[in-house]
Amino acid sequence: MKLAELYKAKTHSWMMLECNGSAINTQGCVNQYFVHTQHESMLMDPGGIELFSPMLAAILQHTELDKLTTLFASHQDPDIIATLSLWDKAISNATLYAPALWDRFIEHFDLDNLHFEGINDEGGEIQLGGVRLRLLPAHYLHSAGNFQLYDPAAKILMSANVGAAIKTQNDAKYVEDFSKHIKEIEQFHKRWMPSNQAKSNWIARVKELDINILAPNHGKLYQGEQVQEFLEWFDKLDVGSAAK
Asked: What InterPro entries has UniProt attached to this entry (predicted)?
């Protein structure tokens, strides 16, 4: 497994852990994203237990562990944050940004070293080595307390489970044909996105952003015109219905 580069500038770079397998349980993979600056780094949605060792090894190829100063958790699912207790032991002085709504759940990880910084419902920002990253509210998509992370410079939106595909037909990094990709995302979004109002609020918010890459937790990423195709499709989708 390796970190594949999504964006690189003088100020910072974005990378994604490349792995194969079914997407959501402990047998498979979550798309893990890593932002690296000269002096600080951040890991987003650190993932399930099986991903700790390969992610740690990949990070050490790019930076020293003491420069990993920030973790971000978009929501509370175990495939997203099961490794928190392991990262707590591996890094001695880092901050965990996660929804304040989930503070009592975070307590069950019995963290000794990670400093928990609860994100209020309206969102906020993270300053990482001089790079400003926005915390974008995405409540009820699919979690009651849910956030995404937007980088205005890289034009990347880490969209958590919005846009996620649990199973994909090939190992391509980006969606190649959105019309064919619909069958891989439709039932997941109908079932796991419970509110049309929350969906509409989110779409209105992200349409104000300049997005080149929409990067979900599972499956392929959306780039360029594929981002707009997804937003237009999602806008019309009636969500909150049980899968058939």
From this structure: Metallo-B-lactamas, ODP_dom, RibonucZ/Hydroxyglut_hydro
Structure tokens at 63: 């930076």
What is the per-residue pLDDT for 242? 62
Looking up tokens 């080149």 gives 212
Produce one character per residue of 92-114: b if its CB has 16 or more CB atoms within 10 Å, e if not: eebebbbbebbeeebeebebeeb
Q: Please give the structure tokens belonging to residue 30.
A: 């979550």
- Is residue 244 domain-resident? no
DSSP state of 147: E
> What CATH number does residue 83 fall under?
3.60.15.10
What pLDDT is stored for residue 22 in this prediction?
42
**Stated pTM of the model:** 0.93
Question: Is 20's pLDDT higher than 60?
Answer: no
Q: Is residue 243 in some structural domain?
A: no
Q: Give the count of domains, the chain.
A: 1
Q: How confident is the model at residue 169 (pLDDT cuts 50, 70, 90)?
A: low
Which of the two residues, 51 and 210, has the higher pLDDT score?
Answer: 210
Structural domain including 11 reads: 2-236
Q: Is residue 242 part of a domain?
A: no
Q: Which of 15-29, 40-54, 163-177, 223-237 has the highest mean pLDDT?
A: 223-237
For residue 160, count other CB atoms closer than 10 A to its CB. 28
DSSP letter for each residue of 16-63: EEE--S-SSSTTS----EEEEESS-EEEES---GGGHHHHHHHHHTTS
